[in-house]
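[recover] target loaded
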């Protein structure tokens, strides 16, 4: 018996020995069960992952989960165990099973910690109840259609013009700069003007005036790490964080973010109540829903506040990551860079592209631009972790393997985007031409940049509009060169697949 190991020579177990022996014996039995009798025991993976979530937490702070996942799948195959009750699947064909609208695999409790603390209903991302999610999303879904976004295209142009003026300044000074930082400023300002017609000042001043992005840099690793911890352990896990000044500062910064979003909503509410005319931004459209159909839809001011808070919290990160990835890979592949610039110049000369601002509908006519954007986002999606779901009641067969109900299953976009059966034998290489020579429809179907099924990112069209408009304007106006072409960017995959250290110099092009 295990307890006898802790007994003294006389055979009696003391209270201190009992206090030590019970948890140790329980842990040993739990490990034995997880590694031999658990339904997932047959799947390979890291030792710590077979009986705990410690391996996932470690990878958060290492910032390399996408690399770790790819290595494990390469070694063990399409299904690996990444926690005692969770597997990662690399086979792209599983997308239709796990993220289908027809057979819903519910979101796991990973997402509940991301819910705005003051919300009546979870925001669209953190909602785990599919019925509630569908009902709440339908209320505002039309505001995020491309048609609706294009009604505010001029606002995106305002931010683009400011971004290019700042590039003028940097080019004139001959300084190198981190492009990832400036794209973060740009994407954050676009959220500001689209939602409530104001910028935060980051782009104008060249630093984080609002303090929000700096706060998120500090908080997000801990925040996402907490999401992997069992719900009953999260308070215990988060408590030590309050001992560190940087974390306390980040929490204060997020408090300011909440205050800022609430203040913007309150200001707009006063304008609406006073009958004063406001610009038709997203916030204005939300207030129209509230005023005209609020009671019918159970849509109150606090629900508007949740939309704004969620947009500020997560609305700029993945867009900035995608913008950076596109330019980074183009600079790393000069032939592709030159080919895209040639396409942009020819379209400008032919009068297809407007000046100074390229319209979204015009950018859609540039096939090589589209291919470059897709290819960069394929290699470096904004989310670099598995997107976990619960297997529904009754269990399901996925990629020929049976999984009991309640098991967590998920696909990491930064793994499945490397599936050679879909993207070709050179799937680990940047090659925009694959989108012309291969089955582009099938490849598109297996892309998870913006999610899939009913949980596709609601702000997808905002991100695409920013990307398609800014990239050609930037490359038409400037020649971008890496300070050190041999240097790799810095990556920190904390769930958002963040990047930094893309140091470039910009010089004004004579053709712009």
């Amino acid at each position: 018996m295990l307890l006898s190991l802790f007994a003294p020579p006389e055979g009696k177990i003391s209270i201190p020995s009992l206090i030590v022996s019970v948890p140790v014996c329980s842990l040993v039995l739990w490990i034995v069960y997880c590694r031999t009798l658990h339904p997932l025991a047959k799947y390979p993976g890291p030792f710590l992952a077979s009986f705990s979530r410690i391996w996932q937490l470690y990878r958060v702070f290492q910032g390399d989960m996408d690399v770790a996942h790819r290595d494990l799948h390469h070694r063990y195959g399409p299904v690996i165990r990444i926690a005692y009750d969770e597997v990662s699947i690399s086979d792209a064909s599983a997308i239709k099973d796990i993220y289908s609208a027809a057979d819903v695999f519910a979101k796991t409790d990973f997402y509940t910690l991301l819910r705005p603390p003051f919300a009546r209903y979870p925001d669209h991302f953190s909602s785990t109840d599919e019925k509630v999610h569908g009902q709440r999303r339908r209320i505002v879904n039309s505001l995020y259609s491309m048609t609706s976004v294009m009604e505010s295209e001029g606002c995106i142009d305002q931010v683009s013009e400011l971004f290019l003026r700042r590039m003028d300044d940097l080019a004139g000074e001959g300084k190198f700069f981190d492009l990832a930082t400036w794209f973060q400023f740009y994407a954050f300002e676009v959220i500001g003007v689209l939602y409530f017609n104001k910028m935060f000042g980051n782009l104008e001043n060249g630093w984080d005036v609002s303090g929000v992005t700096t706060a998120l840099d500090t908080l997000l690793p801990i925040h996402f790490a907490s999401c992997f911890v069992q719900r009953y352990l999260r308070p215990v896990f988060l408590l030590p964080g309050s001992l560190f000044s940087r974390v306390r500062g980040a929490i204060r910064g997020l408090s300011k973010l909440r205050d800022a979003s609430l203040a913007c909503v309150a200001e707009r509410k006063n304008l609406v109540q006073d009958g004063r005319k406001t610009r038709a931004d997203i916030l204005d459209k939300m207030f129209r829903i509230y005023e005209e159909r609020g009671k019918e839809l159970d849509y109150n001011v606090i629900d508007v506040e949740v939309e704004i808070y969620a947009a500020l919290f997560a609305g700029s990160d993945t867009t900035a990551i995608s913008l950076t990835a596109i330019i980074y890979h183009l600079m790393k592949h000069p032939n592709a860079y030159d080919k895209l610039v040639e396409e942009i110049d020819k379209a400008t000369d032919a009068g297809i592209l407007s000046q100074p601002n390229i319209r979204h509908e015009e950018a859609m006519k540039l096939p090589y631009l589209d291919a470059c954007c897709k290819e960069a986002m394929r290699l470096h999606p904004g989310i670099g972790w598995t997107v976990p779901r619960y297997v529904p009641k009754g269990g399901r067969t996925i990629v020929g393997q049976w999984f009991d109900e309640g098991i967590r299953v998920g696909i990491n976009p930064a793994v499945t985007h490397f599936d050679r059966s879909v993207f070709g034998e050179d799937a680990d290489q940047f090659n925009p031409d694959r989108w012309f020579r291969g089955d582009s429809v099938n490849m598109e179907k297996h892309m998870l940049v913006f999610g899939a099924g009913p949980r596709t990112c609601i702000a997808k069209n905002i991100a695409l509009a920013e990307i398609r408009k800014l990239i050609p304007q930037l490359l038409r106006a400037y020649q971008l060169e890496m300070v050190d072409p041999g240097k790799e960017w810095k990556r920190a995959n904390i769930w958002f697949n963040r990047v930094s250290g893309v140091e470039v110099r910009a010089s004004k092009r004579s053709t712009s």
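[recover] notes: The chain has two domains: 2-36, 48-508.
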